[in-house]
Structures are given as C-alpha cells and as structure tokens.
Amino acid sequence: EKHLVLLRDGRTLIGYLRSIDQFANLVLHQTVERIHVGKKYGDIPRGIFVVRGENVVLLGEIDLEKESDTPLQQVSIEEILEEQRVEQQAKQESEKLKVQALKERGLAVPRADTLDEY
Amino acid sequence: MFRYQSLEDCPLDEDEDAFQALGEEDEDIDQFNDDTFGAGAVDDDWQEAHERLAELEDKPVANREQDGPSGEDSDLLGEPEDTLAERLTRLVIDSELEDPAIMQAVQTKVPAQQPGGLNSSIWDSSAVLRRIRGPLLTQEMPSVSVLDYALPQRPPQTREEERDPSERALPRRSSSPVIGSPPVRAVPIGTPPKQAAVPNFNQQILCPKPVHIRATMPQRYPAPYGERMSPNQLCNVPNSSLLGHPFPHSVSPVLTHLQRAQLLGGAQAGRMSPSQFARVSGLVGSPLPSVNPKLLQGRVGQMMSPASGFRAFFGAPPAPSQPQHPPGPAGSHLQSLRPQSQMFRPDTTHLHPQHRRLLHQRQQQNRNQHRSLNGSVGDRGGHRSNQQERKDPYANLMLQREKDWVSKIQMMQLQSTDPYLDDYYYQNYFQKLEKLAAAEEVHGDGPKKERTKLITPQVAKLEHTYKPVQFEGSLGKLTVSSVNNPRKMIDAVVTSRSEDDETKEKQVRDKRRQTLVTIEKTYSLLLDVEDYERRYLLSLEGERPALMGERKQKICDMYDNLRGKAPGQDRPSDDHFMQIMCIRKGKRLVARILPFLSPEQAADVLMATARNLPFLIKKDAQDEVLPCLLRPFSHVLYHLPLGTVTSLVQQLTNLPQSATASAPTNLHLTAVLQNKFGLSLLYLVLSRGEELQSSDANTELMQDNQWTELMLMATRELLRIPQAALAKPVSTPSNLISLFSRYVDQQKLNLLETKLQ
C-alpha cells in the first residue's frame, strides 16, 4: 500500500500512508523522496512525513507489481542530486536569457512569486 | 448551526426528543466552560490520580463479569449507562443503534447505588457523569485530560455531554511519559469523533446523511497502552457501555492495557469493541520498549469488516481484513481522479465499484486466512497467522471509523441541492459518457462498470429564512454579519459621466464597453434559453407553458440586443450589430443564437452580415472566428426562400441594383472571394440558389434577371481573380458547376472548375 504523493513544490514522496484527515493532511511512513532527472531517479529516505493538505497535489496508490516495471533507471543519491543541480542551473540560465530578451523588447514577465513552481 | 441543519434534515421520529435533549445541554455548557477555563482546568492532579489509579489497577478483574449486576461497578455503570443511553438514544438521529440486542441490554441495567466519591472536580459536568466517574475511577480510571474538552467543532455539546470522562483518561503508563506527552494529550481539532462510525453496518443509513453520523453516540474505545499515544488514541479511551455500546453486558468501561491483555488472553471473548482490537493491533508494532508483551501477542486485525458488523463480535472477532483498508480512504482522496459509486454497503459506500471490488477481494483473502481462527477469542492465534501484519506493524493506524469519518466529511462537501448549478461540467461530462456507453451498448456488451459515477448526496433544497440572533429583553438587534446575513460594506455608486468632458478615445472606449456589456447580457439570456430544454423536462406539466413563454421572451430580448433597439424606426443601421460582430465573443454569440431565432430574424442577421462583410473580414483578421458562423448560416440558408437568397447574393457581391455602370473591379466581391469565410458563404448561397433552381424547374429564377445578372457577375469575378488570390473555402458545394453551367460557356466552365478545386 505504498502511496505516491506529489507536492506543490514538485517533490514526489513515496511512502506508506498511515493517516489522513479531511484536509488531506497526510502521514507518510518510511517515506522516500524521489528525484527525477531525465530518465534517472534517485531515492532519499526521509522517514516519517506529515504533509499539510494544502500542499498536496495528488496522491496515488502504487501498484507494487508494476513498481518494478519502470523504464527509469535508479542511480545513487549523490548522482541524482548532481544531475538535479545541473538541471536547475540550465533552467536558470535559460530563464535569464528569456528575461533578458523580453527586457530588450520592452516586455516584462510578471514575477508571480506566489505561484507554485510547477 | 451545523447541528440544527442536521436535525432539520433528519426525517426520523426522534426529532422532538432530540430537541428536548438539546435543551439539557445548555446547562452543561457553563459547566464545561468552567472546566476548561476555571477551576476544573487544573491539570496538576492528574499525576496523583494516576498514582491512585495505578494501585487500583491491581484489583482483580473478576469484577467484570458478564452478567454482573452483582458488581458494584457494573451497577454503577448500569444506571448512568441507562440514563445516558436513554438520553443518547434520543439524541441519536439516525437509527444506527437501534440494534435490539444493544438497546435491550442497556435498558435492563438495574439502577445502582451512588458511586464512591472519588475526587474529580474536573468531571463535575453532570450528575450522570459523576456517577460514572466513580466506578470508573475505582477501576483505575486514569487521570483526566482537561485538554480533551477543547474538542473539535462538531456539535460539541452533544459530544461533551455524552462524553465519558473516561475518554479523557490516560491509561496507566508503564514507563515515564515521553517528552512530548503533554501536547499529545491535547485533542487536535481534526480528530475524528470518538464515535462508532456505524456499529451495526447492516442498518447503516445512507451516506447522504453524514451529518447524522456526527451526532452518533460516541463509542468508547480502549485507551491504548502506554507510550504510543497519538491524540486520537488518547481519546479513544476505554470503552464504556454507556451509550448503547454493542456490548450490553457489564463489561468494564475502562479497559486498561492490563485488562485488555486479559481479555485478549481469552478471558472474555468478543467483549472488546472493534476499535479496541484495532487499536491494539495498531499498537503492536510500537518500537517503544515497555510494550506490554501480552498486548503484543494479542494482535488482532482490524475488526470492522463490513459484512460482519458488531454482532460478530459477540461471537468471535471477525477475521481481520486489515491492511487493505487504507486504500479505502486514500481512494476517497482520489475522488477527483476517479469516479466512485455509492452502494449501500457499510464502509465502502463511496468507493468506486472497481475499487470496492478490489478491497473486498483482499478482505476475502484475509478472511479466508483467518477463518480457522475465528473460534479463538484471545486472538493469540490471530497474530500468528497474520503475516502481513507482522511485516507491517504500522498498518491500520487509522481505524475504519476514522476513515469513514474522513470520507463522510468529503461526501458531505459534495452535497448539492442543484448539481447542475454546482457542478455543471461534471454532470455534462458524465451525460456524454453515458450516451456513449449507451450507444456502444447497442452494439456491444453490457455497460462498463467503470462508467459509474459518484452519486453525490443530493440534499433537498430547504429554505432557511435566517433570523438574526435575538436576545430577549434587549433593545434592538445585534448587528452581526455572517454568511447568511451579509452586511453591506461598500457603497458602490454608478456615476455617469458628462459627454462633454470626454475625449474621442474615451467615447470609443465607452461604446466598446457598452457593447461588451450587451454581449454579456445577451449571453446570459442565451444560456438561460439553452437551459430551458432541460428545465422543461424536469418541470411539471402545468409549469411548462410558462416556461415556454419565458423562453420566447428571452429569445426576443436576445434579438433586440443583437440588433439594437431602435424604437420607432426600421432598422436603419447595422451599427449596433456591427459593434457586436467586431468582438470575437460577439461573433460566437451570434452563432449560438442563430438557431433560436425565427427565420425572418435569422435572415435579417444574415443580411446584415453579408452587407458588411468586407468590414467584418477586415476586423476578423486577427480573430479568424468568422468561420464559426458558417454552420448556423448554412442552416439558416436551408430555410430561406428564393427572394432572400437573391438579395443575399446581392449583398455579398454588392452590386448596385441596376447594373448600369459596373465597376471594373468590384472591391466588395473581391474581398469576399479572398476571404475564407466570405468565399465559403458565397458558395453556400450560390449552392442554395442552385438547389432551388434545380428543384423546381419552373421557378421564376430562370426568368429573374437579377439573378442572372448576379450569376454573370459572380462568374466573371471568379474568373478574373487569379487562382492564388482565391481563398480556400471550408467546403465547395458540388452543385456549383451545374449552376455555372447555366450561365457560361464550356470554356469558361472549365476554367471555373479548375478554380474551384
């Protein structure tokens, strides 16, 4: 009965769902945070998570048989963190370029700071 | 408020009694207040009480005989049980606890003596409770957590009146409290009620009344042992047979872990409440050191299997079907992801049929596993066979009732008096799906179960006239603004500007704004009109003419809006209409309105469009939404008589009536031809003309000079325009060639043909 939770900030947590309430606050046990970069993913064990309901995007049950059935490749934690960092950097670069280009044209992208990142 | 609603919604007879019982609670309010903030709020003596009770714990358990009115305890329990039970039955809105076995048993209690006067200022809530307190205390009632009074929003009065002080009691800790323990005692707001979800599943009322569940008598749950005390568990203190508890026998209301261990050891079969078992099982995996070994052994799976109900507990603990239940409420989380269906089965009423099937399959599996162990009371054997539990000792931290509670809350939120209003897209989506399924059904197999949708509880619309709170004897009314009584916060006044001050741009802007407003108003009318069909079906016979009348009126209004009311004038200007047509939404609006208009009105619209087509084309360059008008236009065309068609073509080509001086280039027509919409429209009109011509050979069309001229003009123009400039029409009607063949010779016809491809 593993469950996969997607949070508003883009994190995916996988764990055993122990408790819920009407606000969708979740208690996850033996949680693992899974980071995906491209085709690789890495798991970071986190322990027990209590998630506030408003940050939950979706929640689904993992079919244990199908879980092993993925085309994704699992890598070590360091590697995946490194990959993530690289990805973030690349994103930031392109974002900067975009903003620059828009500025030159006199447009401005509204910085919606309160918006969720994903 | 909440409770009132639930009471009003309640169709059962207990209404009057419930109202009476409610009055009794008012006295409790003050006492509770006192307890929370006043003298009763002192927490310090819990430790002393704790010590005292620890000694008491060693008393023989023999008191707790099944049949024991002999035991002082049970007697004491009996009477308060009785009274409370009575009061609670009155309060209980749904008939869940009308289990005859339970009720009889409760009422056979002999009213007993006064309880011993153990101190507890905290529990001065009511006389009844006091009486209970006594025996409970003697039975090693742990200390009271005052914080338990600070309870969730659900009808607190009901709850607290019913609440057994034992609920607040802490069980004896076999080790020193963990650091975090005081906060642990606080009952969080989100705590599910300490009630049995549905004691008797077989009688469960339909889900649509989740409100009533909340007023159900709280069930006493055993205090979890020692350390791992989640707040929930804290509240689920030793059961009491107070409230129509399924165990009518005088089982002690307080079951410490020791007692429980004994119970589990087999002393008393099936006396434990389901949640007790569940709790125990949930706690087995506690990593904390001082786990009671007996408890550890006494693992029982989750008790609440839907089919068994509580009656099963009298026999033997039903086969646990535990860890698979977590998907249940988790599944309810997925409401938005999955449609669910409601069946009248106890705890799976709101699950998707597929989901439910899966769940029950798993239950069956587990049940079969434990089939052999049903005879054993203590479930010492239970744990043996339940391998899954052993692997996952944290399973079933949530009781079934808690899950039900959460899902009921969520179902409540779906209650709707008018699903079409609240949830339009969902309803329509499922209607479409059903139509699809029905269509497929004709061809293929039976309807797919996956299509069943969640049947949300439908509450009848009750008109509550809100009366603001009034105190007697006070002057005037309270000025309290709430949801039902909103108070005006801002005075928004419309000021019309004077014409002189405005600049040209402002005027233009204002005009545009007015047009936008007109469009919006017309849109509302349109939506209403479109909705009439559905209302028609739903309404009674008598109402229907009125509905039709309304509809007609609205259609007229729409048309007026479109064309611009020109009182006392013919429609000299298309200006208003043009304004609307310049805006993209306006064009779509016209397209949607056209089917509702009468033929004359529709033709009028068509003409206006055709007349001003180049202008519209120019304006439409960015939106490119004109083609959306084609379909309704073609429908309209079907019904047009010949004369209209002629004039239409004329409009389209913009030829002067008398073609005395034909301009070398016809800009209007050129523009039309070069635009997709224009060309398509032209083709449509021509094709219609051709239809009319060919259908009735003797029609005047042949003799109609005007038509002939128009045709000649059209063909000439078509020929003149280079192929590249010609727009690509949406569709080329097939009969155009035959049309043209009447007017041109073969050579030109061939040219035209190539152009038309």
UniProtKB/TrEMBL annotation, chain A:
The gene is Lsm1. InterPro entries: Lsm1, LSM_dom_sf, PTHR15588, Sm, Sm_dom_euk/arc. GO terms for biological process: deadenylation-dependent decapping of nuclear-transcribed mRNA; mRNA processing; RNA splicing. This is U6 snRNA-associated Sm-like protein LSm1. Probably involved with other LSm subunits in the general process of degradation of mRNAs. CDD domains: LSm1. One of its GO terms (cellular component) is P-body. Interacts with SLBP; interaction with SLBP occurs when histone mRNA is being rapidly degraded during the S phase. LSm subunits form a heteromer with a donut shape. Residues 1-65 form the Sm domain. It is found in: Cytoplasm; Cytoplasm, P-body. It comes from the Eukaryota. One of its GO terms (molecular function) is mRNA binding. Keywords: Cytoplasm, mRNA processing, mRNA splicing, Phosphoprotein, Ribonucleoprotein, RNA-binding.
